[in-house]
Design goal:
The chain has three helices and no strands. The chain is mostly helical and 95 residues long. The two termini are 42 Å apart.
Length: 95
């Protein structure tokens, strides 16, 4: 939190104080069953602009996929190079 001569910023008290000025007295935990099936997929677009239009359409239809991202070919290759090895959960395969 930034230091101010007039005291803490009122916004920082409620937003971003990381509990320094408050105590959690109640919490709600939502538990949901795991899905029976997990499906993963990928779409390849002819160019980045088409991918952006697709992302816009997903947002406009208020779809809520568990995960969605748009990456260019270089970023995709970099991500594939850092894939986690199946032999050890913390190992990384560099190719």
């Amino acid at each position: 939190m930034p230091r101010l001569s007039s005291g803490p910023d009122i916004n920082q008290i409620f937003l971003g104080s990381e509990g320094t000025l408050g105590v959690i007295t109640e919490a709600v935990v939502k538990v949901r069953p795991l899905p029976e099936v997990r499906r993963y997929g990928a779409l390849v677009f002819p160019n980045f602009e088409t991918g952006v239009k697709f992302m816009h359409e997903v947002a406009m239809r208020r779809m809520q996929p568990a995960s969605i991202r748009l990456v260019d070919p270089m970023q995709f290759r970099f991500g594939q190079a850092l894939k986690v090895c199946s032999t050890h959960p913390l190992s990384i395969a560099i190719s």
